Amino acid sequence: MQVQNTKSFLVVDDEPLVRMDMAELIRENGYEAWEAANASEALGILERAGDAFIGLITDVNMPGTRNGMVLANHVRAIWPHIRIIVVSAGRKPFAGELPDNASFIHKPWRPEQVVTAIGAV
């Protein structure tokens, strides 16, 4: 894997169509988008090229031992420069669950919500 520029986002969602739609929206707005199906796959990508990413968009509920909240907090600790956007169809995160300066978008998300959130990067 070779990340081409430093305008890259990593999209993490176990639902392939949701992940592809989000990645396409990111590309349409001038950014490079990488995709991962779960937190472990995302961490593998970040371990190889974390400094090249400016943003992470992750779903909360995913298979495996790490959900999106755990991933978001781990990414903040290791790569503090990465802007984090958490999405979920479930409950809104409690105070303190999200890392500092992270955004939350409730599913189903609207394109303008995502564009606003990635533009804040």
From TrEMBL:
Record-linked Gene3D superfamilies: 3.40.50.2300
One Pfam family of this chain: Response_reg
SMART domains: REC (SM00448)
GO terms for biological process, alphabetical: phosphorelay signal transduction system
Alphabetically ordered keywords of this record: Phosphoprotein, Transcription, Transcription regulation
Origin: domain of life: Bacteria
Record-given protein name: Response regulator
Species assigned in the record: Devosia aurantiaca
